[in-house]
Amino acid sequence: MPTYRDEVVVLRTHKLGEADRILTLLSRRNGKIRAVAKGVRRTSSKFGSRLEPFMVADVQLFKGRNLDIVQQAESLGAYGADIVVDYERYTTASAMVETADRLNEAEATPQQYLLLVGGLRALARGEHSERSVLDSYLLRAMALSGWAPGLTECARCGTVGDHDYFLPQLGGMVCSTCAPAGSPRVAPDTVGMLRALMAGEWDTIDAAPGRTTAAASGLVAAYAQFHLERGIRSLSHLESHQ
InterPro entries, from UniProt (predicted)? Predict the structure, then answer.
């Protein structure tokens, strides 16, 4: 059908001409969408503010040959306003939508959409620390894309147990037999933090000491960037601010 509706998260925008924008959207039912929003940069636009990055909207689109066209937009989650006023929230949200934008069409599933919406909502409401929201999002987004890290068994040989080494290139925790010589050990509380982040156990995450949170964050960043095959630009801004 030439016209369709969907729920979307605005991942990024680009100026087009004098008044239009090209939008990259992660949708609930149609994967990633690139669309034109005409006239949204004019002050008289009725829905320009609903189509800014980090916003969640119910949109009606016309199916175009190269780019779809946004015809209507109703706000479902005005998270952008609360995110852009705080630097850490902004850089965290930027890293999240940048990761979502890296998804290929096969990975842009309804589950990825719901995960991103939940993460942006938590950021906007200040429910948890920004970095923990990001770390949990990254681990779970990787898992939904088929890259779940091994945390309860050796990612290489499958031996179940509490292992001491985390190697992104091998898929997560590995046993002493599989770990290359000289691999750094990971503290048990850091492993527990990784498991809590993956499971969304927020009582455990929020109560963790700063050193444990920082250690886990470093491993999550290394794991995500290894499997995305290039760095997350926004993540470097977040790390330099800490």
Answer: ARFGAP/RecO, DNA_rep/recomb_RecO_N, NA-bd_OB-fold, RecO, RecO_C
